[in-house]
Amino acid sequence: MRAFLEQSQGEWYDDFIYISKEPLKERDYTIVPFDGNDMKNTLDTMKPTKDDIIVGTVEATTRFFDLIGVKTPGYLGYPDSLTKYLGRNVSKLRFADIDRSYPYFIKPADDVKMFTGFVVKKDFDIEMLVKWSGKNPPTPDTMIYKSEVVDFISEYRVFISNAKVYGMQFYNGDFLKFVDVSIIDKMIADYENPPSAYTLDIGLTSDGRTLLVEVNDMWAIGSYGLESRHYALLCARRIKEIIKDCAI
What we know:
Layout: E1 2-8, E2 11-12, H1 15-18, H2 21-26, E3 30-35, E4 53-55, H3 58-68, E5 90-94, E6 104-108, E7 118-120, H4 123-131, E8 143-147, E9 152-161, E10 164-173, H5 181-190, E11 197-205, E12 210-217, H6 228-244
Parallel strand pairs: 1-3, 1-4
Antiparallel strand pairs: 1-2, 5-8, 6-7, 6-8, 9-10, 9-11, 11-12
């Protein structure tokens, strides 16, 4: 078994890749570095198969899936079974159909790398988004999520696999303001047909509510300080599930 780990100019691309190396070696994976800046002459030529896994950026992992003939999973976002935990209205619509009822939060619904979600406060924000989105700006038909703005004062990422919590990492706001863990337990229990490994982003609002920010798939998320053996296990488990529809 090989584990393809992404590098950039001879260094590990990010800490979540670096910390995965030794735990994956302990699981008898052969570590194969590749250059994320030159995947055509590195990853492609190494001919990955469905027996292999990868730890890398969304772009590199998508390329890996393409090479082995596996469809890249879609964005998890806001599962129907967890809607009651959002505490706000979230709708999916065409970019052309967003209105001027500012403020509201928007993010891409399908291509999560198209732009980073942000709060729109005026027409100028939309104009700048289209102008500065690089080679792949949103088009009128681009599907986006539009959400009411919520005042989150602290946010945590909860790492879950097979209904077990492996870690909970603070990532935004005031780390001394803690969420209600009992509500997280309810979210895990209510999530219908979850992937084998995923994260719940959980936020505490200024009025004391513990709400779901979003759900992320383990194949497309960094470690955020999660213990390395847990992170590597969850990544490998989810990649294997995507490839073979079975857990390791």
